[in-house]
Design brief:
Blueprint lengths: L2 H10 L11 H14 L9 E2 L7 E2 L18 H13 L3 H16 L13 H9 L3 E4 L8 E9 L2 E7 L5 E7 L3 E5 L5 E8 L6 E7 L11 E6 L1 E6 L1
Antiparallel strand pairs: 1-2, 3-8, 4-5, 4-8, 5-6, 6-11, 7-10, 8-9, 9-10
Helix pairs in contact: 1-2, 3-4, 4-5
Length: 233
C-alpha cells in the first residue's frame, strides 16, 4: 500500500491496522498521524524494541524542550510509555492498572489544555497517581469467572456472572450514573474491584483476565453507581 493511501485509511478506520512495516521516514510521519488520532502527541507512547537486547521506551513527542518548566506539557504520553515498558517486561497487570487510571483521568477531564482540560502537568500526574484501588468486591468465586448477561433497566444495571465453580450470581448496580463498556457479555473476568470515586457515587470495574491482543481481551465493563449488591442465583 502506498503511504498516502495508508494515511487516508488510517484516518478513515484505524482499527483495520495492527502492525505496519515501513521505512524510517514514512514511519516517522505515520506515528505522528497515529498520535493525532488518539488525542495528540501528548497522548502517544512508543517503544523501540530490540528482540533479545535492550529496548528503549519514550513518548512519541520526545523531550519537548520548549515546554520545559512551564507546567503545561501533557504527561500522559510518558505515563503510558511506562505502562508499555512494564508490559514488555512481563508486568502485565501493573501496566493495565496504569492504563485504566489514565483512561479514568480522560473520562473525568482531569487533563491538560491540549486535550480539553484545565490542569497543569504536575496536577494531572498527581491525579493519576492518586487514582486509588479501594477493595475487591462481590464474591471470591468471581475470580476466573465470566460475565454472561448484562441488563439495563432504567437507573439499574444487572450483571449475571458465572463463577469459576459454575455457580451463578447477579450483581445489581442501583442509581447508575455512567457505564463504559465494550462487548462485556462472555468477558472473562479476573475480579470485580471498587475504585475511588467522588461521593456519593461509587465506581466498579470488572477487570479482564485476558490481554488486549488475545481474543476477547479488549472487552471491559466500568460502572459508576450509587449502590451495589450481589445475590447468588
Amino acid at each position: 500500500m502506498y503511504v498516502d493511501a495508508l494515511c487516508a485509511q488510517m484516518v478513515r478506520d484505524p482499527r483495520q491496522f495492527d502492525v505496519i512495516v515501513t521505512n524510517n521516514m514514512f514511519g516517522d510521519i505515520i506515528t505522528d498521524l497515529a498520535a493525532g488520532l488518539q488525542g495528540g502527541l501528548g497522548m502517544a507512547a512508543s517503544g523501540n524494541i530490540h528482540p533479545g537486547r535492550t529496548s528503549m521506551f519514550e513518548p512519541v513527542h520526545g523531550s519537548a524542550p520548549p515546554l520545559a518548566g512551564r507546567n503545561v506539557a501533557n504527561p500522559m504520553g510518558a505515563i503510558l510509555t511506562a505502562a508499555m515498558m512494564l508490559r514488555h517486561l512481563g508486568f502485565v497487570h501493573q501496566a493495565r492498572w496504569i492504563e485504566d487510571d489514565v483512561l479514568e483521568a480522560v473520562r473525568q477531564k482531569k487533563t491538560t489544555q491540549d486535550i480539553g482540560g484545565d490542569l497543569g502537568t504536575r496536577e494531572v500526574g498527581e491525579w493519576i497517581s492518586k487514582s486509588k484501588f479501594v477493595a475487591y468486591v462481590g464474591d471470591p468465586d468471581f475470580h476466573d469467572g465470566a460475565i454472561r448477561k448484562v441488563i439495563s433497566e432504567g437507573s439499574q444495571l444487572l450483571v449475571e456472572i458465572e463463577g469459576c465453580s459454575g455457580a451463578h450470581f447477579s450483581a445489581r448496580f442501583d442509581g447508575v450514573k455512567s457505564v463504559f463498556s465494550h462487548r462485556p457479555e462472555d468477558m472473562s473476568i479476573e475480579a470485580l474491584v471498587e475504585m475511588e470515586a467522588l461521593p456519593p457515587s461509587r465506581r466498579f470495574v470488572f477487570t479482564n483476565s485476558y490481554e488486549p491482543e488475545d481474543e476477547g481481551g479488549n472487552a471491559y465493563l466500568d460502572v459508576t453507581a450509587e449502590d451495589f449488591s450481589v445475590k447468588k442465583l
